[in-house]
Amino acid sequence: MLNPVFAAIEHWEFWDIFASKWFWCGLGGWIVASLIKMVIAAFKTHEFDFVYLVSTGGMPSSHSATVAGIAFGIGYTEGFDTPLATLAVAFAVITMLDAATVRRAAGEHAKVLNAIVHDIKELKFKPKERFRELLGHTRKEVLWGMVVGIAWATLVCHLW
Questions:
Q1: What is d(CA 158, CA 160) in angstroms, rounded to the nearest whole number?
Q2: Exposure check for the chain: N or C terminus, fewer CB within 10 A?
Q3: pTM over cut 0.85
Q4: What pLDDT digit, counting tens, does each position of 59-99 carry?
Q5: How far from 16 is each of 12, 68, 69, 124, 150, CA to CA, in Å?
Q6: Where are the domains of the chain?
Q7: Cα–Cα distance measured from residue 21 to residue 142, given in angstroms and rounded to the nearest whole number
């Protein structure tokens, strides 16, 4: 029996996702937000760091841009009063709230843990690694990520 994952990929309709405007509303929102994030960081550090294309945290939120782009792409094409649009908006809101609360709090905890690790190093202990601090977003970063996603979805849906 064929693995269901491979069966889906082998089915010709699977590949249609890459030709859908909803896919490009989300992916494009993520790419645009990540590029903006990289440029903002380059102005601050005076060097381009391509890690911002796949990193979490920072301005604007690429997660917010992705889910807002998908939600608004669906709303523009299917109608904002449809169950699918409602589901997409709910998914986007949950994702953005998570980015601004839970993941942000985890980043703040990482800062405290890194300070403790630093103090332990001063006492000549050798902790192995630092915790990643830039995990979540401020509400401003989430808001601007959402704006980028909506703007991108508007552009895609009106030009497609």
A1: 6
A2: N
A3: no
A4: 888 889 999 999 999 999 999 999 999 999 999 999 888 87
A5: 8, 21, 19, 57, 23
A6: 21-159
A7: 23
